[in-house]
Amino acid sequence: MSKLITRRSVMAAGAAGAVGTLTTLPISMVRLAFGGTRDDFTFTYISDAHIQQIKGSTFVRNWDQGLRRAVAEANLVKPESDFVIFGGDLAQLGKKDELDHGAEILSHLSPKLHTVMGEHDYYLDLGEYWSKLYGPQYYSFDHKGVHFVVLNSILTTDEWTFHRWPSDEQRMQEMAGLDNPNGSPFMVGEKQRAWLKEDLSKIQHDTPIVVFSHSPLQKIYKGWNFWTDDAEEVQALLQPFKSVNVIYGHVHQIQYNQIGNISFNSVMATAWPWPYPQSYAQVESHLPVLTVPMNRGDPFFERDATGWQLIDVNSGRVAARYQLWDNEPRTVAFDHKQGRPVDLAFQEPTHRRPAQNHY
Amino acid sequence: MAMRMRSGALVFALLGFTIGSGTRCQAEPLGLPPVPIPADNPQTPEKISLGDKLFHDSRFSGDGTISCSTCHANDKAFTDSPLKTSHGIGGHAGTRNAPTVINAAYFHTLFWDGRASSLEDQSQNPFLNPIEMGLPSHEPILKIVRDDPAYSDAFKKVFGASGAGISMEHVKKAIASYERTLISGDSPFDRWYFHHDSAAISEPAKRGFDVFVGQGRCVSCHVIEQTQALFTDNRFHNIGVGINRIQPETPRLAAEFLIAKAAGASVDKSVLSDPKTSDLGRFAVTTHFDEIGAFKTSTLRNIAVTGPYMHDGSLKTLRDVVKHYNQGGKSEGDPSINPYLSGGIRPLNLSDQQMDDLVAFMETLTSPAYVNASAGGSKP
Amino acid sequence: MRFTFAALAIGLTLATVSARADEFTKTDTDRWQKEYQTVVTDGRSLWTSGALGTNGVACAQCHPNAANTHPETYPKFQKQLGKVAQLFEMVNWCIRNPLEGKPLAADDPKMTAIVSYITYERRGMKLTPGMH
User: Fold this and answer.
1) In which domain, by residue range, is A305 found?
2) B chain contacts of residue A298, beta-carbon cutoff 8 Å
3) DSSP tag of B33
4) Residue C86: inside a domain
5) What are the start-end ranges of the E strands in chain B?
6) Rounded mean pLDDT of chain A?
7) Is residue C50 in some structural domain?
8) pTM
9) Chain C residue with minimum CA distance to B231
10) B213 touches C: beta carbon within 8 Å
11) pLDDT tier at C6 (50, 70, 90 boundaries)?
């Protein structure tokens, strides 16, 4: 698949040489080592940039700044991450100008880039331009003994996608509103589940699996499409494997969960934070009980409650190191004793801070 | 504990009246909360007096010429205005602008990058920095205070310590104690805002206040509250000073700094000896990506007489400062804004009149005791 | 006899005078509820429109279903304003800052609509003024 945007290094010619020789400690938090026979490695996760065009070549400065900052900081990591995942929603309304502008910013990342589709990228042209930029909408690859799967998990019913709306633009607008009652639940869909089944049939059950998805592959809150309608079917396909990690975007907040053998970790947006579902007082929602919420952001600081992630894979288990701006870094790591992800600093109720109270 | 603090505050209050923080007889000046006094360092008149003496003693330097007051001079609102960056022994130029000591007692951390956790902690560093006082260790200080009878009597009286029993802990506490009396509020702004004296400030300054809390977006970091105004949030922000110019080199500088730090290099020495390292800001202390190029929010009290501005003294006048913010964190000569810029900084679209008014407002923050301090940067 | 007649006369007089004080009918209250709901709907429309500012950003982008607006906690000390403020002042802060628009008067019909929508989505919550 040909790609229009090539990767370029942001390093000035002089600096690149010096940086290449450094082998310092990782710049952020303590590396977690569980021991084991597989390689430990780290990759970068940047998601939900929501590049939004105002007019012509003017874009909403706030979201641009978020993506630029994530890219600049990600490039500071030494040793360099094995690869970068972009977690979906690069554009706000799926427009070519927005995708191009976002892709240009992402092109400054040094490591290899893999991408995940988001609904804001998809519903204008059903991913046609996205595929020109970034290739397939779902695929898999292997890296250091781990099997990675990328799903397009923001599809919905054929009726809604093809027959409900008079224009592509309107379809995109309707899906763009998180709380829009005219929206439609996300799903992976039968075709992809069949592909997934086939793809996984070639993998040993003790091979760690990491799934990248935009929607949560769980059912958290339908009103805001924190939801994957065929979550149970997808989870069933993943059940035979000993160690499965799902990493998802879309929710613009810290969430984590354990369902059977599957650990779930959300990633932050670089653009803006979303409230936790329990703060919508009129309906019930099902945020995983064990999630410790992130701090409520101060909207004056446009980057507060946004950020990016370094994901460590240790013996096939995931530790998500959240790089939060204007905030304490957070690490949510798989705890072998408890058999689920825990927040290393704030899991104990007595360790919480007032700003972590969401109501 | 509370009892001790209250009596300490009371003693301080009486002293405040005499030492010259204002003409009002009250526990703290108008517009400020009570000074935080640590339980293990209560205020007493003798301790304050001892601290005053230590603060002004230039014997505690490599060539006998530099005291705390060299860079924090009484007649310059406790700065060395108009110097951009301070000069230590042998005329060595440093990388950073001397902040005022006035109201430093309200800071949670000291220095532009917050590397000291208290006034006590801060006081010991400049003695040892080769750019500042350049002593090889604290021993020369201890020798003087142990041998000089004027000092040894005072240390005995204040701390009950003598001879080898006098330690840097005592020196630090005395200096901090003196610094806690350098408090000033009761500016024209305070009288207008908290005492509702409508004649206290001019019309342009009143318009400037509206900009300050509105379109200027200043109040979120330079805090004003319902009954007090510290004008600082005690946090660290990258506002695009210094860092803008080293942008292409930031990855290399950050990485090299971390290697040096891991090998035991002193942050205090590194940041004062190399301007580019200095521009890394709070990152040098915490190593968080998030704090590259970030510096502590200064108080704006007495700002008109404490120029030039910013950690490197690079902005000469208050108008220059306002322009920098108006342009979204960028001044002339900067290639572009830097990617680590605080989310609170963005173009403001202020008109010339609004910028003038904002400067006029800031000029109302000078307390009566300091109006005659050396001209700061408010006049071009 | 005269007394009863007088009482009857007064009674009749009363019957011919229209409703006094806070006396209204169910028809009135139904009608007023509908009118109120149109204002809530206007508020919702403004909430999602992106037209309140100059950069196309809509309130709903950060506040789906007006979540995280906490109208029941106002007035309260608002950091971003440096003082104790009312809900409409914070709405204006958002219009000026993330939406880069011009503030509305407190009694502007648009502000009324926005505040109506916000409070409607938060209906039933206990008043907790001052809470953070």
Assistant:
1) 36-347
2) 220
3) P
4) yes
5) 236-237, 295-296
6) 89
7) yes
8) 0.89
9) C82
10) yes
11) low
